[in-house]
Each structure stands twice: as C-alpha cells, then as structure tokens.
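Hey, can you fold this one?
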Amino acid sequence: MPPAPEACAPAPNRLCPVDDAAKDPSFDAYRQQLRAAVQQRDEAKLLPLIDPAIRTSFGDGGGIDDFKSSLSRTEGSSWTVLEKVLSLGGSFRGEGEQASFWAPYVYSNWPESIDPFQYVAAIRKGVFLRTTPAAAAHTVGTADWAILELLPADTPPSTRNWLHVKTADGQEGWVHTSDVHSPVGYRAGFNKMNGQWKMTAFVAGD
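Sure. Predicted structure:
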C-alpha cells in the first residue's frame, strides 16, 4: 500500500485541499460512479450522470450536446480536464435538497481577498519552481500548496503548458500547468434533481 500523502498544514498564502464529499453519502457514491466513467473514458456511463441542460459557458449555448462535443475535441479534451477537476475535492454550498457541491477546492475555497485572475494554487506538496519553462530546467525551489502570483510571460507555443509565477516571499520561477489550478479555471457544479445527483455545470472563466 502506498504511503498516505502528507497533510497540508494551514499557513499564510497556502490553500490546503478540502473535500467534503463524504458529508453526504449519496453524493459520495455518485461521485465514485462519475470518476469511474471519466477514468474509463466511457461516454455511455457518463452521460446519464449529467444534467441534460448542463451549463457549459456563461453565454449562449450549453446543454448536453455541447458537453458531448467537448469530450471529443482532440485538443484540450474535457475528459482530461474533468478528471483533474474531480480529483481535487470540493465543498458543499447550501443545505438540504437545495445544497450544491462545487469542485475543485481551488474554486470553492478560494480566499475572497485574493484576485482570482492574478493567482493560481499549487495543488500538491513539492511543486517545482524552475528557472525556465522546461522539465529539464534547474529548480529554484518548491511550492507546497502555495498561492502563486502570475507574472507576464511571452513564450512560444511549445511552452504554453508553463506559467511564470512568484511566491509570497518573492521567489520567481516556472511551474507546469498540471501542478497548479486557477480559481477561474474549469470547475464542476452538482445538484440533486428528483432525488438524483447530476452535474449541472462545467464552466471556466467568470
């Protein structure tokens, strides 16, 4: 059995993971089904778990057809994005039958005092800060669940999976996008409809 991940100790400029799913056993069971369908890339199992009127943007459009279309895109596949979102916990809002659940915790628990468009959160312990946007670059430090300021960066398409960031103590470096998440990045919302949990939103931006 692999060792349990290290706990995140609360600290200034750190966003520790939160996952409240177990507070509602019916939602916890639903999410397990959802995760399995996503991990298997099984559209037939996934779609019954989705609200036919799912919100997929803040403008026109949306609905199950738009959601299905996003799953088949060769670039920026929603399968990959959704799998990451579902792996990052989340929180309930409201109570009783009106309660909703939002994932990931980076969105649902983001501090109101920090500009969500100017910062991202490291989503694990030991996220490497590198001197340049390359996996082979030297490291200048690590970020443990840290809230990181985004810095301007003009980079070629080959480095688009990297972000130039700065820590609260002023250390600058590059992080891979797989190691961080934005509070205005993709998030998923869930509501109980006729006694059954459904994904009712899968959106990004604000």
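The mean pLDDT is 90. Let me know if you want another pass with a different chain boundary.
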